[in-house]
Amino acid sequence: MTDFPEGAPCWADAMFKDVEGAKSFYGEVLGWTFGEASSEYGSYTQAYSGGKAVAAVVPPMPGSEDSPSAWCLYFASSDVNRTAEKIKGAGGTLLMEPMQVGPFGSMALAKEPSGAVFGVWQAGEHHGFEKAAEPGAYCWAELFTRRPDAADDFLKKVFPYSARKMEPGDDPEAQGMDFKVFSIGGTDNPVLGRMKMGEEFPEEMPSYIQIYFDVENCDDAVGKARKLGGQLHFGPMDTPFGRFAALTDPQGAAFAVIDMRTTVGEMPQMSEA
Question: How many C-beta atoms surround the C-beta of residue 118 within 10 A?
Answer without folding.
Answer: 23
